[in-house]
Amino acid sequence: MTSPLRRRGIFNPPLTIVKTLEAALPQIFEGEKAIMKMTVDFDRCKGCALCTTACPKKIVEMQSEKLNKEGFYTSICIDQDSCIACAMCAIICPDCAITINSGGGKKYE
Question: What topology does CATH give the domain 32-108?
């Protein structure tokens, strides 16, 4: 019988993704509270809103004030202090418009 971590399916990501995230976590959280910032590339975002459903803290929303050059409303992070830098929004973004930046200048896409 295989271990639950090794089984693949709809609800279990491939082991390589799990290992990659486990390896990145110590680098992301340096010290007690690293300053992490979620940024959206305004021109790349097509407003699909997948990031709003992926965020576990529900702090990513679609803005309705202005359009980008393609004519789409984009997503924004409404509370950077509540962001846990899980990068779920960046992982699910089909346009690669979201990046997670640490205070030291490191970039996680």
Answer: Alpha-Beta Plaits (3.30.70)
Task: Give the N- to C-terminal CA distance of the chain in Å, as an integer.
Answer: 35
Cβ atoms of 69 and 43 within 8 Å: the answer is: yes
Residue 15, φ and ψ in degrees, nearest 5: -60, -30
User: Residue 79: which residues within 8 A CB-CB, separation 6 or more?
Assistant: 57, 59
Domain ranges across the chain? 32-108
**Six token digits for residue 85:** 């830098």
Amino acid (1-letter code) at residue 94 = P
What percent of the chain is helix, strand and coil (3-state, nearest 5)?
25, 25, 50
pLDDT in tens, 37-85: 889 999 999 999 999 999 999 999 999 898 999 999 999 999 888 888 8
What pTM was computed for the model? 0.62
d(CA 99, CA 75): 12
